[in-house]
Amino acid sequence: MAKRDFVFTSESVSEGHPDKICDRISDAIVDTYLAADPQQARCGVETLVTTNRVVLAGEVRGPGSITAEQLIEVARRAIRDIGYEQDNFHWQRAKIDCHIHSQSSDIALGVDASGNKDEGAGDQGMMFGFACNDTPDLMPAPIFYAHKILRALSEARHAGLTPQLGPDSKSQVTLHYVDGKPVRVAKLVVSIQHSDRIDDRQVREIIRPYVVASLPDGWMCNEENFLVNPTGRFVIGGPDGDAGVTGRKIIVDTYGGWAPHGGGAFSGKDPTKVDRSAAYAARYLAKNVVAAGLAEHCTIQVAYAIGVAKPLSFYVTTGGAVDESKLARVLNELMDLSPRGIRTHLGLNRPIYTPTSSYGHFGREPEPSGVFSWERTGLVDELRRAF
Q1: What are the residue numbers of the active site?
Q2: 113 Cα distance to chain centroid
Q3: How is the beta sheet containing 297-304 ordered, strand by strand?
Q4: For 138, which DSSP code?
Q5: In the β-sheet with 181-194, what is the strand arrangement from edge to edge?
Q6: Of the residues 6, 269, 315, 351, which has the fewest C-beta atoms closer than 10 A?
């Protein structure tokens, strides 16, 4: 964004939002297959939820010992862990149908390595990565704080501190920028499911301390611009209030609309699917560029064809902060952007995806288990030497 005065808005949704329930179940199934067969497992899994019903569908490749009954149990555990024990959506009582079947042999032919052919991309498409110095995690500030508010409320609910609040919630943060930098909240919206024993005034006071604590000192907007449950009531929520489907929150998953998006969802896909792995790689490279101090912001695009190992194109822009032709060359030298190269470099052939299914795939703390490995900044020294 240019250095000027403006406002910008991003939203987040909680793990109890119907679409995010689906992402959680789909990623839990991916993790089930990768735990059983890290190198050969393949998943393209979709989930649908509605009132006390869950439908699992998609294509997989993996051990025959993984049965439909086991996948149904995986789905139940995911719903239980989110916290759904409501009359019209309950982890024990929901009817779950599994229609997952074997992967197409035509897709496997293009993706699998054979002879002199390297592993190909699991699909065609273009993926974007982005980083900027708005926040310590090098994310755009509006989506960063929208996620942070809902994570704080989720942690409080799981800890038993807010028993009158439910799992389904959304936030929306509008920030005021001065000279291209965020300085305060202009407007803030939180919609959160609640018990019918409390009203919206009480909901407002329950969530207020978590909202304020999630923001920098002095950033909170005035009361007029702090909107809580604007409809006046949010008792009926989750899949009973709205159906959910895997992959419908791709802007929440990435940069809150601040950066471009290639259109592909992440959840439910194993790392041979470049929709997921190449988007992680692009974020990894962009974050390292900004972390190295080479630019205040960096956008990367990479494109693939199904069955082809090497990217069709690679584009990087920093707004002219550095020689971008040289930067593109250096980044391609530092990381092999073939699907196999990405998975090896970032250690993606592991059951690490369930935690990514809510509160964003980016701007998270990398964990020793390998979760969020794409948030590491291990290329900083080499980039600084190159420039």
Answers
A1: 17, 19-20, 46, 59, 170, 234, 242-243, 248-249, 269, 273, 275
A2: 29
A3: 125-132, 297-304, 313-317
A4: S
A5: 6-13, 165-178, 181-194, 226-228
A6: 6
